[in-house]
């Protein structure tokens, strides 16, 4: 990482970690994976037409809860490091304290990759049986899925799609703003 990019990253982390609204939002967001876990465990046998749907909710909920909990822990840890750096000053040998815990970064990457692959698989599992029978047919009792389970799985996927699109848009916006800011910092202008 270049020094300028690393300082910008440090400022961004500092703002996020010090934002109480972000922490409260993560705490509220923790309700979704916990609910997924509960619904998946409670209805593990309620969708014989596609038994992976409750399993998706169960495993996705457990791993998602772990991911959000680790994010909350890291933010609280960063908040304590920031408050200590304000008290101590900038005389520390390491200006960027998150470097000391690079293994946490790899844990977050592994969990994120798993959750993304699980999300892609869930799209296939849920939408491959789109609009299943919600009441077990007499002649084929295994071709149904409990309505509340299926609707909740579709809701979780729709919410995930929405969040993914918002994150991509925010990332593109930040990239655009950083490129414009970098051009302005060096005094280059496209009009020449």
Walk me through this protein's architecture.
- With 192 residues, this protein is mainly alpha-helical.
- The protein has six helices and no strands.
- Helix 1 packs across helix 4.
- About 4% of the residues have low confidence.
Number of strands: 0
Helix content percent band: over 70%
Low-confidence stretches: 87-93
Total helical segments: 6
What brief labels describe this structure?
0% strand; 72% helix; mainly alpha; 192 residues
Short description:
The protein has helices at 3-17, 20-29, 31-42, 52-88, 102-127, 147-185. The protein has 192 residues and is mostly helical.
Task: Set out the fold topology.
Layout: H1 3-17, H2 20-29, H3 31-42, H4 52-88, H5 102-127, H6 147-185
Helix pairs in contact: 1-4, 2-4, 3-4, 4-5, 5-6
């Amino acid at each position: 990482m270049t020094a300028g990019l690393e300082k910008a990253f440090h400022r961004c982390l500092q703002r996020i970690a010090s934002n109480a609204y972000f922490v409260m939002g993560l705490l509220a967001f923790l309700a979704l994976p916990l609910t997924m876990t509960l619904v998946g465990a409670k209805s593990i046998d309620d969708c014989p037409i596609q038994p992976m749907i409750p399993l998706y909710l169960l495993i996705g909920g457990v791993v998602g809860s772990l991911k959000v909990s680790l994010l909350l822990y890291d933010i609280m840890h960063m908040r304590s490091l920031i408050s200590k750096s304000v008290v101590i000053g900038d005389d520390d040998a390491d200006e960027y304290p998150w470097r000391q815990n690079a293994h946490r970064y790899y844990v977050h990457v592994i969990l994120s990759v798993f959750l993304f692959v699980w999300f892609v698989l869930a799209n296939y599992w849920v939408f491959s049986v789109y609009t299943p029978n919600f009441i077990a047919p007499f002649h084929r009792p295994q071709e149904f899925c409990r309505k509340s389970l299926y609707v909740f799985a579709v809701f979780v996927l729709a919410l995930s799609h929405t969040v993914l699109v918002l994150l991509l848009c925010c990332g593109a916006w930040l990239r655009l703003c950083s490129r414009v800011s970098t051009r302005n910092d060096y005094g280059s202008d496209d009009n020449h």
